[in-house]
UniProtKB/TrEMBL annotation, chain A:
The keyword Ribonucleoprotein applies. GO terms for molecular function: structural constituent of ribosome. Gene3D superfamilies: Translation factors (2.40.30.10). Coiled coil: none annotated. SUPFAM superfamilies: Translation proteins. The lineage of its organism: Eukaryota, Metazoa, Spiralia, Lophotrochozoa, Mollusca. Belongs to the universal ribosomal protein uL3 family. The keyword Ribosomal protein applies. This is Large ribosomal subunit protein uL3m. One of its GO terms (biological process) is translation.
From TrEMBL, chain B:
Gene3D superfamilies: 2.30.30.790. GO terms for molecular function: structural constituent of ribosome. GO terms for biological process: translation. It comes from Pomacea canaliculata. Keywords: Mitochondrion, Ribonucleoprotein, Ribosomal protein, Transit peptide. This is Large ribosomal subunit protein bL19m. Belongs to the bacterial ribosomal protein bL19 family. One of its GO terms (cellular component) is mitochondrial large ribosomal subunit. It is found in: Mitochondrion. InterPro entries: Ribosomal_bL19 (IPR001857), Ribosomal_bL19_sf (IPR038657), Translation_prot_SH3-like_sf (IPR008991). It comes from the Eukaryota.
From TrEMBL, chain C:
The keyword Chaperone does not apply. This is Large ribosomal subunit protein uL14m. It is found in: Mitochondrion. It comes from Pomacea canaliculata. Belongs to the universal ribosomal protein uL14 family. Keywords: Mitochondrion, Ribonucleoprotein, Ribosomal protein, Transit peptide. One of its GO terms (biological process) is translation. GO terms for cellular component: mitochondrial inner membrane; ribonucleoprotein complex; ribosome. The keyword Transit peptide applies. CDD domains: Ribosomal_uL14.
Length: 365, 322, 144
């Protein structure tokens, strides 16, 4: 059975799989034609087993005082009453060579130019990390029992991270109960990261931009810009046909759809017009040039972050071997805690090679 | 629903959900569509969050560290002063494209711009002003290079703000684009501050070279303090056609009568869009709301009013250290 | 408004009717582009006197579009001559000058310049170039 067939079955079973499970798989997006009967492209969009949105919220007709009271109550429960399920802080693991730490959910803000100390201009993408908390940690043995778990992931545990705390009234009870263990308000966005057991992280731990360091490399995963239904030239980069010289009604068409005889018929994976964009894509090995700790913003190299402005973005330490840090000089394990810095956390942190605007102008000697 | 009936059970999160129990069963219609599915299909397909939702989240009290936006309400500045500032430093205004706007991005960019302005003086200038720019150059003698010219174009918002200087050197027209916030720009001076009748002077490429020539040893022209920016009502006489652009179609005020046959002006009139000036939606889409502009310029005023004195202090400190 | 300055409206209007799409006028130096010779060589001056300016017949780089400092092959007064590009009319990046004419300097096969003086300023970025270019830089009087 192919990997895709296994995952298709697992999804069909409608068991406890989180929607973005497949996003953490290290699958290369290779477009190939094939003559097989099975599907070459796996299509997402299956309903999630835990219903999220509470449709009946507008049926409540509360007076303004009741409304305010409920808001106060909600605010108090999450700030003043810690979850009775809370445990003692977990022990911190040691950073080894093949460690995989937890990742973070950010929101892409846009592009801003920066300059290096040698005077070269670079484009940077700003990503804001808004209110991330760890929701759940499952060790490898338990995680392996969940449906859809691939044997390749046997060494990894699973960490569920949530972003953007919201009013619990807009969600269903079953969704809200997911956050009981962590003791945090229900989140708009959930995702999962594969994590080595030494990077186990306690539910309820907040994650900020300080989870990363300036100069580190990260992989960034997001949904690409939705272009809608697009023709073959824009979608697949085909060349089309000449505008004149006798060409009849076929300027931007696909042209031929294949061969004949033994190769007859249209093969699976034939490039045709269709929906373009809104797909998960990963850009690997992006450098972090700068971190702003006040707004939790990362300055990532280049315009390479997929997606449009205000899309969710998954950021985690890169898997590229030559860009991973040494165990001697490793990022905070399992994450950065406020007590580590002893209150000395500069608002802006610049890379050594990046020009900080507080410095004098760049001059050559 | 009265507040007296609220009770907490084991975990707070569960109890909040327990207040809202479905009483009506959800029945699908003939086609098997539930109300929720129909609502979902009618919703616009979007894989990004709207600006207003992101802002709501940033300020929500449920956030771990909700953002407390620093208020500019206590900044005292008249609307005239702010309008003046807006003309003087147009690069601080945000880009009008709604889908690519983000408050935090703009704020962080503006912070960098203030920091840079504390290090070097970025003077006031307009299209038509004569300026001198000193740039750091690896291969030049003294590792610096100075270019003097007339500003023919100015564009860009934020850190990518730039302008083009034009000059004629040894009979050869030269134009260089400089970025205002590039750290290799060591010095920007406005030698002669003035405005022209047009907001861009690209037609100088099709004008005699005398209009673009500025001597490299041009002496700065001082202006009395507080005076309005002088307007140079010069009308340029262009060369004979062919031109780089169809200047007759561009409503230029700073050129003399172009002396073209009647058919050119007739065609220009046919292609003209005089209704655009009444197109309110177009204006709305391409400009920033006045209230928002005021808020931004108030912040700019508050941060930049002390820059001159700050830089003077830094200079005296450096001299003392020496 | 500012963006329209770079576009030729007439071409766009006509070709729009025929469903053509056009790019901006890029002012690139390709084959058969006419260039101005900015040294004081007799050949350069003679070509101007006849009324047949030098034309590029080959650009020595992968893309076959000339950039500052690229070597080109010119057809000038009926002969073939090598030259280096020292000025472009094309839109340039910041800090790099854009000239009102496409300027070249004639060189021999071995790289020695044909003329003895240059009449136009040279972009300062070319000062970092090595090899044959140093001989041209020694002739330059003015850098921009």
């Amino acid at each position: 059975m192919t990997l895709r067939a296994v995952l298709f079955q697992a999804f069909n079973r409608n068991s406890g799989i989180l929607k973005h499970q497949l996003e953490s798989a290290r699958v290369l997006y290779v477009h190939q034609q094939s003559r097989s009967k099975g599907s070459t492209q796996y299509k997402f969009g299956r309903p999630w087993h835990v219903k999220k949105v509470n449709q009946s919220i507008n049926d409540e007709n509360l007076t303004t005082e009741n409304e305010e009271f409920i808001k106060e109550v909600i605010h108090e429960t999450y700030t003043q009453h810690p979850s009775p399920l809370r445990e003692e802080p977990w022990q911190r693991g040691e950073y080894l060579k093949f460690t995989r730490r937890c990742g973070v959910i950010g929101i892409k803000l846009g592009l801003v130019p920066q300059w290096t100390k040698t005077g070269e201009k670079i484009t940077t993408t700003l990503v804001q990390i808004l209110d991330n908390h760890v929701i759940r940690y499952t060790p490898p043995e338990e995680a392996a029992k969940t449906a859809g778990w691939h044997p390749l992931w046997r060494k990894f545990g699973s960490v569920v991270v949530g972003a953007l705390s919201s009013d619990p009234r807009q969600f269903k009870k079953s969704y809200n109960s997911l956050f009981a263990e962590a003791g945090v308000p229900p989140k708009q966005k959930l995702t999962r990261f594969l994590v080595t057991p030494n990077a186990a992280i306690q539910p309820g731990t907040p994650l900020t931009a300080m989870h990363f360091r300036v100069g580190d490399y990260v992989d960034v995963q997001a949904k690409t810009i939705d272009y809608g239904f697009q023709g073959v030239i824009k979608r697949w980069g085909m060349k089309g046909m000449p505008a004149s010289h006798g060409v009849t009604k076929s300027h931007r068409k696909m042209g031929s759809s294949g061969g004949g005889r033994e190769k007859a018929g249209i093969w699976k994976g034939k490039k045709m017009p269709g929906h373009m964009g809104d797909r998960n894509r990963i850009t690997k090995g992006i450098r972090i040039w700068r971190i702003n700790t006040k707004y939790n913003v990362l300055y990532l190299h280049g315009p390479s972050v997929p997606g449009s402005i205000h899309t969710y973005v998954r950021i985690y330490d890169t898997i590229l071997p030559h860009k991973r840090p040494n165990p001697d000089d490793h990022p905070p394990m399992p994450t950065w805690f406020e007590e580590d810095s002893e209150g000395q956390c500069p608002e802006e942190q610049w890379d050594e090679e990046l020009f900080a605007f507080t410095e004098p102008s760049v001059e050559y000697q | 629903m009265s507040s007296d009936t609220v009770t907490f059970t084991t975990a707070p999160a569960c109890s909040i959900g327990a207040l809202y129990i479905h009483t009506k069963p959800i029945t699908p219609d003939v086609y098997g569509n539930t109300k929720a599915r129909r609502a979902r299909e009618l919703r616009p397909r979007r894989n990004y969050l709207l600006n207003e939702d992101v802002e709501k989240q940033r300020r929500s009290l449920l956030q771990r560290n909700p953002e407390v936006e620093s208020s500019v309400a206590d900044v005292e500045a008249s609307s005239d002063l702010l309008q003046n500032l807006r003309e003087k430093m147009p690069e601080f205004m945000p880009r009008p494209d709604i889908l690519s706007r983000d408050r935090i991005l703009e704020k962080l960019e503006r912070q960098d711009m203030y920091r840079r302005r504390e290090v070097i003086n970025i003077p006031e200038f307009f299209v038509g002003s004569i300026m001198a720019v000193t740039v750091a150059d690896k291969s030049a003698p003294g590792k610096q290079r100075r270019f003097v010219g007339i500003c023919i174009y100015r564009e860009g918002q934020g850190l990518s703000a730039n302008f083009i200087l034009r000059n004629v050197i040894d009979g050869q027209g030269v134009e260089i684009r400089f970025e205002l916030y590039n750290p290799t720009l060591l010095k920007i001076e406005t030698l002669k501050l003035e405005k022209r009748l047009d907001d861009q002077l690209m037609y100088l490429r099709d004008a005699p070279q005398e209009y673009s020539t500025v001597p490299f040893d041009f002496e700065p022209v001082p202006l009395p303090k507080g005076a309005a920016v002088p307007l140079n009502p010069l009308k340029v006489k262009l060369n004979r056609r062919p031109w780089h652009e169809r200047w007759e179609r561009m409503n230029l005020k700073g050129v003399e009568d172009l002396g073209l046959p009647e058919r050119f002006y007739k065609r220009a009139q046919e292609l003209a869009k005089p209704w655009e000036r009444f197109d309110l939606m177009k204006q709305y889409r391409s400009t920033i709301d006045d209230d928002e502009a005021q808020t931004v310029m108030k912040e700019v005023y508050a941060k930049t009013k002390n820059i001159q004195s700050l830089r003077r202090q830094q200079r005296t400190q450096k001299q003392k250290e020496k | 408004m500012a963006g329209s300055v770079w576009r030729s409206w007439y071409v766009q209007k006509v070709l729009a009717r025929q469903s053509f799409s056009t790019t901006q006028c890029l002012q690139e130096l390709r084959k058969l582009a006419r260039v101005r010779v900015v040294d004081n060589s007799a050949l350069g001056r003679a070509a101007v006197a006849i009324g047949k300016p030098a034309r590029i017949i080959h650009v020595y780089n992968k893309r076959e579009v000339g950039y500052l400092g690229d070597k080109v092959l010119l057809a000038i007064k009926g002969q073939k001559k090598h030259a280096y590009i020292v000025g472009l009319k094309q839109k340039q990046k910041p800090n790099i000058p854009r000239f009102d004419s496409n300027n070249v300097v004639l060189v021999e096969e071995n790289g020695t310049p044909v003329g003895t003086r240059l009449t136009a300023p040279i972009p300062s970025v070319l000062r970092n170039k090595e090899g044959d270019f140093t001989k041209i830089l020694s002739l330059a009087t003015r850098f921009v």
